[in-house]
Design brief:
single chain, 222 residues, alpha/beta, six-stranded parallel β-sheet, 44% helix
């Protein structure tokens, strides 16, 4: 694994959202369990962390139907989860990861263009932008609604490059899951990984660098 993600050509930092900038996985797990309570099944933490973290809701639903052998359509499960998430976000933003605001501000003040590229909803990002004040730093957002194929497909990152008019070599991504890393690498964008306890066991082969926190990353690379 290389020493750093940021290089001489880097002009843009593209942050993942869930698990990287916002501490949302515990909320998502709780909401999914609330959905599954209606079907008298229990969501296993290990399955959630290995197969669901970093993956969009619609695919989560497909995986849950298969894993739990449910007779309900995956689309119904997904809509129930979307409804609960919308209800949550109508009232509040997800809490931030430690030092997320100060790190994004520092990246911005160092002259890098900042983007958010997520497999989550635009509503979630909009709440981060408005309620946590990230709108003054973030220049581009690509959310799950903006692409046909979300992570681990590269489409979201390719769209961010297109919107900014830059090449992959001019960008670096920051991700917390192997699925996000795979999306970035498939778009030929170097990826810095900062695993959470939920994704610590993911396979991060191919990452440009790995750190324990956002703060450790900026201290090492900025």
């Amino acid at each position: 694994m290389a020493q750093t993600g940021i290089g001489e050509q880097t002009r843009v930092i593209l942050f993942d959202h869930d698990g990287t900038l916002i501490d949302s996985e515990s909320v998502h797990f709780r909401l999914w369990q609330q959905v599954l309570d209606n079907y008298d099944v229990v969501l296993n933490h290990a399955f959630h962390d290995q197969k669901m973290a970093g993956i969009p809701v619609d695919q989560n639903a497909v995986d849950l139907v298969e894993h739990l052998n449910l007779s309900v359509p995956a689309s119904q499960l997904a809509e129930e989860k979307h409804a609960l998430t919308r209800q949550f976000l109508n009232e509040q933003a997800f809490p931030l990861m430690p030092d997320a605001a100060s790190v994004v501000q520092q990246v911005f003040e160092q002259g890098y263009t900042v983007g958010i590229v997520t497999g989550g909803s635009r509503q979630s990002v909009d709440q981060t932008l408005s309620r946590h004040g990230f709108d003054k730093w973030v220049s581009v957002v690509v959310a799950v609604e903006d692409v046909i194929r979300s992570k681990p497909a590269p489409d979201c990152y390719l769209q961010a490059l297109s919107k900014l008019g830059i090449s992959a070599e001019q960008a670096v991504s920051v991700e917390d899951t192997m699925y996000g890393m795979q999306a970035s690498i498939s778009a030929h964008i170097p990826c810095v990984v900062i695993p959470t306890p939920n994704s610590a066991e993911h396979d991060f082969t191919g990452a440009a660098a790995r750190y324990d926190s956002l703060t450790q990353w900026v201290q090492a690379e900025l």
